[in-house]
Amino acid sequence: xxxxxxxxxxxxxxxxxxxxxxxxxxxxxxxxxxxxxxxxxxxxxxxxxxxxxxxxxxxxxxxxxxxxxxxxxxxxxxxxxxxxxxxxxxxxxxxxxxxxxxxxxxxxxxxxxxxxxxxxxxxxxxxxxxxxxxxxxxxxxxxxxxxxxxxx
Length: 152
Known about the structure:
Layout: H1 4-18, H2 22-28, H3 33-41, H4 48-57, H5 63-68, H6 118-129, E1 137-141, E2 147-151
Antiparallel strand pairs: 1-2
């Protein structure tokens, strides 16, 4: 359970850190100004939606610190370490001597990109004409590590 008095202190610390008034802060996290006022006065407890909006708008605010007071503020996000894929080793190319000039084989044409089923395309075209967000690409990932990409 969130301790309201301590939560208010942490919220005030965020406002001070960024030098924001309650009204400007409310606008930046897209909540009503009265909602911030009610939180700061202790009248209301924070909703999960409010907490997530603050954490999304201000990456230096650590969720665990904001809710429980444990951790640090400002939080410096750790660098994510990603495993680099192994570099494929290929045998060195065989040198071609002028006396032995093999005839290059015909290069096979790349297979055409898979097409999205017609019923999906029709739905997407309909949404595009309605002025909604438009999907440009659909990627299907299979459990064997393969995937298919469909360009719309």
